[in-house]
Amino acid sequence: MKHERATEEIRELAALYALGSLTQHEARSFEIHIREGCSVCEGEFHKFARTIAEMGFASEEVQAPDYIRDLLLARIEREPQPAAPAIAPSRNKEMEQSPEKTSPASAPFPSPPSKRGMPPIIAWIVASALFMMAFWAFFNWKSSRDANNQLQAQLSAARMDAEELQKKIDSQSGKSAELEQVLAIVHKPGARIARLIGQAATPDYAGAILWDTKESECLALGSFLPTPQGKVYQLWFFSATTKIPVGLIKTDSNGRVYTTLRVPQEAEGATAAVVTLEPDNGSQIPTAPYCAAGRID
């Protein structure tokens, strides 16, 4: 299967292949994959191969220790010296019979001494140094990648913590603003308050109505159950002679109520506040049984 782009797994496999660190089976599979025409894997392999080849030349020249020279000289002394080539008898006889025909110009050129290859110990030292440099480079690259992944995970966790903290701060700020509004209404001259108490069918309902008579507004707050589909809570002000609809009360998903409503002028003499469950658009007549009710003080 050919790859469309280089991934971290492909880069790691190509680096290990260039270092010769794959098993025989893994290396064989990688070679077959490249021969099948995957240009992405082949490009990654050549990239790491060039890097490893250049690493030996990128390092500074280091003076070899003195004992290396002693080891090399001892090794050379143990090497068998090539024997001098024997002169063929026919050639010696011919030279003795006709010495006058021999001249320096006609003498055969001596064969140049054979070049000795690099001593095995030097080749081993160079190969080991290159391998160690390549391994160290790969180790640093892998460590940097792991450290980067760890930092990314820590950054993501810190970002989530910051978002959660911001939500808590916003929630506390909202609660502080609500409390300031409640206190502002309570301390106003002429403010009236009704404590809402759940009725027989809904004993867990509780709340309060803070009526700012000067601004003709009231703040409804409390804790009710979420309304059923197609239903809504409605606030009423009752007087001795009439029942005035004030407005619709909406709850959040938890049944929490915090709503500001305009109070009609005709509700000026009201003595009780009542909450009922009405159709979506509200009603002109309160529907029994009442959900919550309280006297307006």
CATH architecture heading of the domain at 192-295: Sandwich
Helix content: 40-55%
Number of strands: 8
The SSE string, one letter per element, is HHHHHHEEEEEEEE
Principal-axes geometry comes out as rod-shaped
Query: What is the mean predicted local confidence, pLDDT?
Result: 79
Which sequence of strands runs across the widest sheet?
Answer: 5-4-7-8-1-2-3-6
What's the helix and strand layout?
Layout: H1 8-19, H2 24-35, H3 39-58, H4 66-78, H5 89-97, H6 120-186, E1 192-198, E2 206-212, E3 217-223, E4 231-238, E5 243-249, E6 256-262, E7 272-279, E8 292-295
Antiparallel strand pairs: 1-2, 1-8, 2-3, 3-6, 4-5, 4-7, 7-8
Helix pairs in contact: 1-3, 3-6
Descriptive key words:
8 strands, 297 residues, Immunoglobulin-like, alpha+beta
Structural overview:
- With 297 residues, this protein is an alpha+beta fold.
- Among the domains are: 8-58, no CATH class; 192-295, Immunoglobulin-like.
- The chain contains six helices and eight strands, in the order H-H-H-H-H-H-E-E-E-E-E-E-E-E.
- Helix 1 (8-19) packs across helix 3 and helix 3 packs across helix 6 (120-186).
Brief digest:
This protein has 297 residues and is α+β, with helices and mostly antiparallel strands. It has helices at 8-19, 24-35, 39-58, 66-78, 89-97, 120-186, and strands spanning 192-198, 206-212, 217-223, 231-238, 243-249, 256-262, 272-279, 292-295.
